[in-house]
Design a protein that fits this description.
Layout lengths: L2 H19 L18 E3 L5 E4 L3 E10 L3 H14 L3 E8 L3 E8 L2 E9 L4 E10 L7
Antiparallel strand pairs: 1-3, 2-3, 3-7, 4-5, 5-6, 6-7
Length: 135
């Protein structure tokens, strides 16, 4: 076996082992009752989280290679299963799909945008925080 073949075999083996040990990042959700489908990667540089003693708000951005139509159905199904009430949906070719939900003191807007290579998911949520009472 020539040195080039040995080196090539070693390189392929090293790359394969490196890919096999890479762990996937877990998806982030600031709100425990807003599930994030598998296959989406959190985009921290495009996300914003604001928290005060009375309100928690976030714009969480994800991306992945999922179809907007099936993702839209999956989001609605899982959100309704978590107690969110569907208020409205709109769909436009240039603007993707927008879904609006509400749940006791909370609001949620889901935007699904079909990009050239990735689908973007924007979750914009706000929730009134319960204040601790002092005696």
């Amino acid at each position: 076996m020539s040195i080039q073949r040995t080196l090539a075999a070693f390189l392929v083996l090293a790359l394969t082992a490196g890919c096999a040990t890479t762990s996937a990042r877990s998806t982030r959700s600031e709100f425990e009752d807003i599930p994030v489908p598998k296959g989406l990667t959190y985009q921290p540089s495009k996300s914003t989280i604001i928290e005060s003693p009375t309100v928690k708000a976030a714009r969480l951005v994800y991306r992945g290679r999922l179809e907007v139509e099936s993702l839209s159905v999956a989001m609605r199904t899982t959100l309704e299963a978590n107690g969110w009430r569907h208020v409205s949906s709109t769909s436009a070719a240039e603007h993707g799909v927008t879904q609006v939900y509400e749940k006791s003191g909370s609001s949620l807007e889901v935007r699904l945008l079909d990009g050239w290579w990735f689908t973007s998911v924007e979750l914009t949520a706000s929730r009134a925080q319960q204040q601790a009472t002092t005696k």
